[in-house]
Amino acid sequence: MRYYSNIADFPKIDNAIVTVGNFDGVHLGHKAIINEMKKIKNETNGNIVVVTFNPHPKSILCDSGIKYIHSNSRKSKLLAKLGVDYLINIPFTKEFSKLSPEEFISEYLVKHIHAKHIVVGYDCHFGPNHNKTMNALMELSNKHNYNIIDIPPVYSNGKIISSTEIRKALQQGNIKEANTMLGYEYSIYGKVVYGQQIGRTIGFPTANLFIDDELKLIAANGVYACKIKLDNENYFGMCNIGYRPTLNGKDLTIETNIFDFSRDIYDEYIGVYFVDRIRDEVAFKDLKALKAQLEIDASTALDLFCS
Q1: Facing residues of 276 across strands?
Q2: pLDDT, tens digit, for every residue of 172-218?
Q3: Residue from 259, 255, 258, 257 nearest 247 by CA
Q4: Which of 192, 272, 279, 278 has its CA nearest to residue 235?
Q5: Is the pTM of this model over 0.90?
Q6: Residue 168 CA, distance from chain mean position
Q7: Which residues contact 274 (CB under 8 A, 6 or more apart)?
Q8: C-beta of residue 129 within 8 angstroms of C-beta of residue 96
Q9: Which of 75, 83, 129, 188 has its CA 20 to 30 A from that of 248?
Q10: CB-side exposure of 196: number of CA atoms within 13 Å?
Q11: Which domains does the chain have, with CATH numbers?
C-alpha cells in the first residue's frame, strides 16, 4: 500500500475506486466497504483508494478530546492487510472543514484522485452540511462520470457497528462486544519499562507498558485475559489496567503478566491483545490477599483461552 499526506502528490492512476472516512478501528462496517471495493477492483482492474483525515474532525470541530481506537500506523497496517492500494491522510483543519461537499468532491475526489467509483458507508458525510453529502455525490456523478455505491450499515447484537459504539464498549470494559464489532481483538502496543517490581516478589512478574501515543484509547480499568505478541511469538497472560489501589498507586499503569515466561524484555515492544474482562480492579488488604486473587485470575484466564 502506498501512503500520501499531500493530495497534490497523488499520482494519476487507472480506475480509482474511492472511499472517504475516518476508519478508526477498521471495524466490520469498514470491512464491508473495502470488500465491495475489492469486488469492483476485480471487475475493472482498478485501484482501491481510501481517503481519511488527521486529526479526527471531531477534535477540531467539537474540541471533544476524542481518543483513537488505533494509532495512524496501526490503522494503515490494517487497511493494507485488507487490500487497500492507496491511503491518503488529509490534514484536517477548520479551513478545510468549510469546504462544501461539492467542492470536496470536485477538487479532491475528481481533480486529484480521478475517481471512477465512489463507495460510501451509510453515514458518510463531508462538509459543514452533513445532509447534503449524498445529494451532492449523486448530482455530480453524471458531470464527472463516476459511479456511486452506497453500503448499508452492518449490525452486531441489534446495534449498528460504528467507531463510536466500539469506543463506548471499550470505555465500559466490554471487550467481547468491542472485539465482535471490530472483527478481531482490541490491542495495545507499548514499550516495556521498569516499575516497582513488586509483582515478581509474589510470583507474578509483570511487563509494565509505556504507551507513547497520548491519544490512544485505553480500555476501562480492570483485569483482562490477554494474548501477547513478542518477536513474532505468541503467549497467554493477563493484564491489569488501573491505579494499583492495593499499593496506593497514583498513576495509571498497564501491567501484563505473561504466563510461563521469565525472559528480561525491558525496553522491548510488545503487543497485548485483549480477549475478555475478568474483573474490576479492587484494593486488597495486603499482598498475600492480592496474590491469592491473582492465582484465581490466572486460572480464569486459562479457562477463557481453552473455552
Answers
A1: 225
A2: 999 999 999 999 999 999 999 988 777 888 889 999 999 988 889 99
A3: 255
A4: 272
A5: yes
A6: 13
A7: 175, 179, 185, 186, 187, 188, 219, 224, 225, 226, 239
A8: no
A9: 188
A10: 13
A11: 9-160 (3.40.50.620), 185-306 (2.40.30.30)
